[in-house]
Each structure stands twice: as structure tokens, then as C-alpha cells.
Amino acid sequence: MTTQSDLQRAVERVGQTLELEGIPRMPARVFAYVLTCSQESYSARDLAEGLEVSPAAISGAVRYLTDNRLVVRERAPRSRGDLYRLVDGDVWATIMRARVPLVDQIRSGVEDAIAILERRPDHEVGLGLARLRETRDFFAFVEADLGEMLERWAKWKAER
């Protein structure tokens, strides 16, 4: 992108932010494009042209995004191609709800590790065991509060 429009700069800014949060670069850019631009859905060609990248780059990016439930793939009407769009409704609340199993999986794995380390003498595992317990407690807190947080979000959004 040689001379960037405001829209292109906004897409790149959001993409960079998502990349800092651990989303790979191209999926972050594609998600930022879908989030920022005003179309309802996008073909792979739309995405490639809008981001000025190859169709191959788009293919891998949308696979990552659909696998991680950040975008939805659907068949284009009267076409053999696919269209990509954000999940229906409140995209961020939907993404957070989809992360509940991951939070539970992390907490469960940490609990398993705690059970293993609790069999060892304290002087061998003291600080590590304390960190794992705090990690377990944090994810239990997040898991317990996530439902309430999403309800508070819906209410806050409705009142705005």
C-alpha cells in the first residue's frame, strides 16, 4: 500500500494491535479488514484486493480465522465461492463465549499439574506450586465471572 487511505491505516492499526495479542500477522490483518470495512461479507478476492496481498495469503488467514471462530465461512449465493463475515450479533461477546472451553481446559491442566506437584516435598516445589495455585484460582475466577461479565456488557451496551 503506497499511499494509504484512512481506511487502510485504520485496518493496519487494528491488525497490528491484534498481532501484538498473539494473532498471526495475516489473520490479524484480514480480521481487522472484516471488522473495519463496511461490507457484510467478503470473498477471498475482496480480501486480497483490499489488503493488496496474494490469494494464497488470504487462504491461510481465513482458515486460521474460521478454525478459531473469529469469522464464519458460508457459500456465496449463486456461486461456487465462499464468503467470509463476522459471527452474527455481538462479535466480541461471541468470541469471549467461544473461549470458555479454553479457560476451562487451562484450569483443568493446571489442576492436574498441581496434583502431581503436591506429591513432592514443599522445598522442591514451593514457589512453583504457589504460582500454579494462583494460576488455577485466576482461571477459576475468570470462568465464574465470564457469564456475569457478558450479561453486564449486554446491559451496558443496551443503555448506551
Automatic annotation (TrEMBL):
GO-annotated molecular function: DNA binding
Stored Gene3D superfamilies: HR1 repeat, Winged helix-like DNA-binding domain superfamily/Winged helix DNA-binding domain
SUPFAM superfamilies: Winged helix' DNA-binding domain
Keyword vocabulary terms for this entry: DNA-binding, Transcription, Transcription regulation
Official protein name in the record: MarR family transcriptional regulator
Species: Nocardioides donggukensis
